[in-house]
Design a protein that fits this description.
It is built from 6 helices and 8 strands; from the N terminus they run βαβαβαβαβββααβ. It is of the alpha/beta class and 163 residues long. The protein has a 4-stranded parallel β-sheet, with helices on both faces. α2 links the parallel β2 and β3. The radius of gyration is 16 Å and the shape is globular.
């Protein structure tokens, strides 16, 4: 099982699409640990109304501790063999988890990472720029490549991996 950690603050507008992307590939069993960081919109109600046993709603106690602290709350409650991160305003391609798990199995890796396509949209919903996190951070990867802990830190790739 993969435990998906999703810290959220006022994510009512985007979280449903993010969750849909997690559940789009039913070959990978997942639990999603949504960690509310003091939302004042309808985020908590939306999660409760979904009433999905794969989703566990946790809280930082309304203290607005930030995304990293929220991930730590989720990590403490996670029961999966693998951990993945997803923000409530992001989505995954349908094959993402399955592909990452295949790479981990084939290589014996303790953690695997993939790139993120970053799309900047203006106030009129027009695409202004498209790039990737690897490119933005000066890392070029084509295919499967071993990344060292040094590179993980140097290129600030912590949010990209499954471990």
């Amino acid at each position: 099982m993969v435990s998906v950690l999703m810290p959220v603050l006022d994510g009512e507008r985007t979280i449903a699409l993010a969750l849909e992307s997690v559940f789009s590939d039913d070959r990978v069993p997942v639990e999603v640990l949504v960690v509310d960081d003091g939302s004042t919109d309808g985020t908590v109600s939306l999660i409760e109304e979904l009433n999905d046993p794969r989703i566990k709603l946790l809280s930082t106690g309304g203290h607005r501790l930030g995304a990293n602290a929220g991930r730590n709350v989720g990590l403490d409650a996670a029961s999966g063999e693998w951990i993945a991160f997803l923000d409530p305003d992001d989505t995954w391609l349908p094959e993402r988890l399955h592909t990452l798990l295949d790479v981990a199995t084939q290589t014996g890796a303790d953690w695997v990472a993939d790139d993120i396509l970053v799309v900047y949209i203006d106030s009129e919903d027009r695409v202004q720029e498209v790039s990737t996190v690897f490119t933005q951070r000066g890392l070029e990867v084509n295919g499967t490549r071993e990344l060292t802990l040094e590179n993980l830190v140097r290129y600030d790739l912590g949010v990209l991996f499954l471990w």
